Amino acid sequence: MSSTISRDSLYAQLGLPDSALLVDVRRERDYLARPRLLPGALRGAPDGVRRWGRTLPRTRPITVYCADGNQVSRAIADELASMGYPTSYVEGGLDEWIRAGHATVRARDELHVPGGSRWVTRERPKIDRLACPWLVRRFIDPEATFFYTPAHRVRSEAEVLRAEPYDIPDVTFSHRGPRCSFDAFLDEFDLHDTVLDQVADIVRAADTGALAQSREAPGLLAISLGLSANVRDDILLLEQAMPIYDALYAWCKTAHDETHSWPQKVTSQ
Known about the structure:
Order of helices and strands: EHEHEEHEHEHEEHEHEHHHH
Number of helices: 11
Radius of gyration: 20 Å
Oligomer: single chain
Number of strands: 10
Shape: globular
């Protein structure tokens, strides 16, 4: 049988290594009435669970949600549980999540978000061109595909690949004044979250050379340049950068108050 998870417990896990894969199982009319999703959620039609359920990974727990956390999500969660998935459903559904003030993501059908977006940018990524794919895959579209190409071919390759260009001049997903492409993704998908805002501050400072604006930015810059120097294949570089941004997000969310020093102070008894 499936179990329940509260909105606050789900938010506490969101984006961390032990987080569940989220699936929006609202009826189509509910989805169209409010085309927003929990960060990182996929879409699954309630009447197609036996079809799309078989495509879900067996390595992660599954959490589903509907509009109000009642009949629809409970039935889908039980169905997935009967198929052998560890499944829970969100108490109160999307309605309660939004009432609690937690972040949601704007669905963008024209970009195939969620469930199949494609993105292309300049080769040899350093910061923004790695941070943006991390943001998309973790919080916007887990099934997104990314391509890297020589700078002069980004626009032509975007047409061939049917991909959205980013982090080049004069496109939607790019720098805007002092703000970088990471900020543009947050804006375009209307994704407002205090932890992601902290990550954005670090990424922006490292990417734009405004290192004085974030004490963590010089470290991110050094690690990024070193990683790029070590890894020549851009797709492999992206895969190796993902855990770095996972760690940065986890630090902002759960560990930013933790300290470390050596030698440790020993108190006398």
